[in-house]
Amino acid sequence: MLMPPSRADLCLDYANTRSWRGREQPFERLHGMADLLAWLAKRNPDGLGPASQAERWSRQHPDAAEKLFDEAIALREALYRLLAAIAEARPPAEPDFAAFKAALAGAPQRSLLVRLDEGYAWKIGGFEPSPAHLLAGVLWSAGDLVSAAGRHRLRRCANPECRFLFLDESKSGTRIWCDMTTCGNRAKARRHYARVRRDQADEPSPPIEC
């Protein structure tokens, strides 16, 4: 099986499949194995990676596939908490770090690089029904990010309802919103509204006519 090199932010994409985490009801994009496999396939449009093999396996083993999906989601949540802690310069919780290390240790090794018509890919063994193999690209991405200087550009959106993870690629390195047109503008609108309300509260009351 061939695996394309992982994008630096692939692990963030996966962690962010559950969004608006600060709200009472966050938005969930992955509701079952079919959603997870579609997500993986979309990020490897050339047919590389485990999605096609995992799809055949999941049809043949639906109960095991459901269990594997639950484990993949549990790993996603541990990964989100780990990356969020690093983004905020906090020590990650030991159970989250241990879960990540165990999964990364079980992921295929990147030892054989092969040339394709366009670009390169890693050659690994066939699909094994485990979160570590299914999410190998995600885990490689997270391992590279956590161990590299790029982790200092890892951010969590300052919008308390959003909490999206992203890499700050701004020149100043001071970006705090995942997207200025959404969370940034909402924050500006809230500040403007609060300022108007404050100014109105400070206005003297009109005199009472007798």
Task: Give your account of this protein's structure.
This protein is mainly alpha-helical and 210 residues long. The chain is built from 8 helices and 7 strands; from the N terminus they run E-H-E-E-H-H-H-H-E-E-H-H-E-E-H. It has helices at 10-15, 33-43, 51-60, 62-87, 94-106, 131-134, 136-147, 180-202; strands spanning 2-3, 18-19, 27-28, 113-115, 120-123, 154-156, 165-167. Strands 1-5-4 form a 3-stranded antiparallel β-sheet, with no helix packed on it. The chain has a two-stranded antiparallel sheet with strand order 2-3. A two-stranded antiparallel sheet has the order 6-7. Strand 4 (113-115) and strand 5 form a beta hairpin. Helix 2 runs antiparallel to helix 3 (51-60), helix 3 packs across helix 4 and helix 4 crosses helix 5.
How many H/I helices? 8
The assigned structural class equals mainly alpha
| N-to-C SSE string, H for helix and E for strand | EHEEHHHHEEHHEEH
User: What proportion strand?
Assistant: 5-15%
Oligomeric category: single chain
Helix content: 40-55%
DSSP strand count: 7
Low-confidence stretches: none
Strand order of the largest sheet: 1-5-4
Described by the principal axes of the CA atoms, the overall outline is globular
Biggest pleated sheet = 3 strands, antiparallel
CA-atom Rg in angstroms: 22 Å
Instruction: Compute the separation of the termini in Å.
Output: 89 Å
Q: Give the overall average pLDDT.
A: 88
